[in-house]
Design goal:
protease; SH3 type barrels; globular; 7-stranded antiparallel sheet; SH3_16; mainly beta; endopeptidase fold (from Nostoc punctiforme); 2 domains; 5-stranded antiparallel sheet; single chain
Length: 256
């Protein structure tokens, strides 16, 4: 199966092969993909290597790569809120946390594209070294606007935010909140929560529709309108600005 890598800062992943189709997720610079199908008018059906999410992307946002690069582990990411890179000598600004596969001495080769970095990337940490680093990663997103399907500091939905933050600590999460709730182990009580546990929230039908990162047993950072820090108790989240109850707590899960 052919492989490709994302060579634009953020690429929409759509439900169908059309620009007007719903954006179901995003593909970030440096992410590798499997090509499932192509169309004559420049659309590519892909599967994201990281989370197996499938959808349609524009071929103009991708560069074909070989199987070796596809299977190369990503060990570095871009640490600035925005980062200057060049692609075959053309400058580009890339968002926080994008991966740099095949990194060597401020450069990488992705197919026919030579990537040069202006600054040294950061190392992806291990789950054992999570905690404070995970909190620092989460705080990079503060005040990022909520965007359905978003996964970057330019715009993120609740599960795209948690997935991206955990990724930089070497912890793999699935894409959607209800999927992330199937991972990890259950924390029985909020009072037992620690930094980095995820709290999940359901709607009136009992479906999990929201997720956030617990900073402790009484504060949560989550994407709701924007990425914000709000108080949480055994019933759920209260908006720190309006003092209104916004989300009903369903379950807490731990991943490291």
């Amino acid at each position: 199966m052919p492989y490709a890598i994302v060579v634009v800062p953020v690429a929409p992943l759509r439900a169908t092969a059309a620009h007007k189709s719903e954006m179901i997720s995003q593909l970030l610079w440096g992410e590798c993909l499997e090509i499932i199908a192509t169309t004559a008018d420049g659309w590519v059906q892909i599967k994201n290597q990281y989370d197996d999410y499938t959808g349609w992307a524009s071929a103009s946002h991708l560069e074909p790569i070989d199987e070796k690069l596809f299977h190369t582990s990503a060990t570095h990411y871009l640490p600035g809120w925005v980062n200057r890179v060049t692609m075959n000598g053309v400058p580009m600004m890339v968002p926080y946390g994008c991966l740099v596969k095949g990194y060597h001495q401020l450069s990488a080769q992705w197919g026919n594209i030579h990537v040069s970095l202006a600054d040294a990337p950061a190392n992806i940490t291990t789950p054992e070294a999570a905690g404070i680093q995970l909190k620092d990663n989460a705080l990079q997103f503060l005040n990022t606007a909520y965007l359905w399907g978003g996964r970057s500091v330019f715009g993120a939905d609740c599960s795209g935010f948690t997935q991206h933050v955990f990724r930089l600590s070497g912890i793999s999460l699935l894409r959607d909140a209800y999927q992330q709730a199937t991972q990890g182990v259950t924390v029985d009580f909020l009072q037992e929560a620690r930094l980095g546990d995820l709290a999940f929230f359901d709607n009136e039908e009992g479906r999990i529709t929201h997720v956030g990162i617990l900073l402790n047993d009484h504060e949560i950072i989550h994407a709701s309108g924007k990425v914000r820090i709000d108080p949480i108790d055994n019933q759920g989240i209260t908006n720190a600005d309006t003092h209104l109850r916004t989300h009903k707590l369903r379950i807490i899960r731990r991943y490291y």
